[in-house]
Each structure stands twice: as structure tokens, then as C-alpha cells.
What we know:
Helices cover 62% and strands 0% of the residues. The chain is mainly alpha-helical.
Amino acid sequence: MEFRVLVGCGRGGRRGRPIANAEIMEELRILREEMAAMREAGRDPEASDVSEAEQEVEPEAEDMTEDIGVRLLKAVIGASSKPRLEIAAYNGGLNPEELVDWINTMDKHFDFAEIPEDKKVKFAVTTLQGHALLWWDGVQAERRRLHKQPIKSWSRMIAKLKDNFLPRDYQLSLYKKMQNLRQRLLTVREYTEEFYKVNIRAGYTEYNFEKVARYMNGLKFDIQDEMSLFSPKSVEEAYQCALKVEEKLNRRNNSGKGKGQAYRGKGP
């Protein structure tokens, strides 16, 4: 009996963006091991010239093959019923934010797909490309040369990646960017998206009222003045309020200076 599963990859060939579910790949691995064990025991699952007497003597070989096929089929059906999460590959570029965003995306995928801890590193490696992949293979090869166990912990893999691909002052510069973020020529929506991105990348935790205050301090002065009568209790509430104020100021600006001129605001 022959089982085939079509596995597609994104850019970068077999090391590109994985589309196949990790459960299918794990089931295939188990399938190969069990079929190899059957061959070693003299029960070839692919043999077609087995006599009826031999089949009667060892019917468990066919049952075992059917059991393997059923398990594999269930894995394929289960994977196809789940929405697929696209994961961009990481190639070790000069932009440090690409690594931080990749790590955050991988964490979300692990949680979504319920990937066990001992399979996270194996899965993550399939999304590495270019320099990042060559570097990682070199790290593991060097550990084998020194008779050390290969890295199998996702947290240790993250630490190694950050040590190699993030600038030494990256975290400090990220905190500075977070504290000094201002709306300037951005719309409220664009400023809010950037605010969330910087906070997620920095991994900084603070009291909610501090985050709201920092968010509001980055808005344009005109918007801050209009919002002075409100007391939002969350960034999302402040965002919705700022959107309404921006819309109001846009209407006022357009009525005073003619249609088509967008609101620019003042500072900060």
C-alpha cells in the first residue's frame, strides 16, 4: 500500500514558507518507521504476491497497514479542516524588526496549532531561509562537533537568534522609540498601528493608565485639546475618541479652507 501527501511550499523551495500541517508531517514520520519495522519483520506492506495461506497466517500485517492508513487519513482531514496561517520566512536580514515580528508570529502559530514544545524548534527551522538557515545549521553542527546536544528548546533558539541578529542596543533604542513616538503627519489610525507595533516589539508591560497617558501624549496638540474633557480607560477607547475628534477637525478645516484639504493639525 502506498500513501502520498502533496505538500506545497511558498517561496524558497522546500525551506520556504510551510503550508503542510505539522501533524501530517509527524504522522508521515511515524508511518515510515512502522512500515520499515514491518519490512524488517518480513511483512512487506507493499507486497502484492502474498499467497492466501500467508495472508491467513499473518492477517495482522494487513490490519496494521489499514490502521496506519486510517490514522494518516484522519490527520490529513483534520489539518485540511483548520484554517491555514501564513508564516513569512525569516532570512536574517539587516532589519532587526523582521526577527522580532517573526518570533511573535511563530508564538501565535504555536498557540493556534497547539504545537507541543518538543516540535517547536523543528517547525521553526522550516521557516528559515538564506543566511539565517545557514547560520542555524552552523550552530547545530558546531554543537555536534563539541559533542553537545542540539538545541531543541524554542526559548533557547530565540535567545540564540537575538544574540546573533539583534544589535546590542536594540532593546534600549526600542524603549526610546516607544517613549518618543509622536503622531506628527500620521493619521490617528496610522499612529495607533505604530503605537501597538512598537509596544509588542518592546515587550514592555505597564499599568493601563500609563499606556493610555503615553498614547494620548503622542497625539497632535489639537486632538489632545479636544480630548481633554474625556477620560478614556483604555487605549482602544482613546483611539475611538481620537478618531471622532480627527473627523470633526477635518470637517472644520475643510469648511474653512475649501474641500479636499486634509487636516494637518499642530504638533507634537
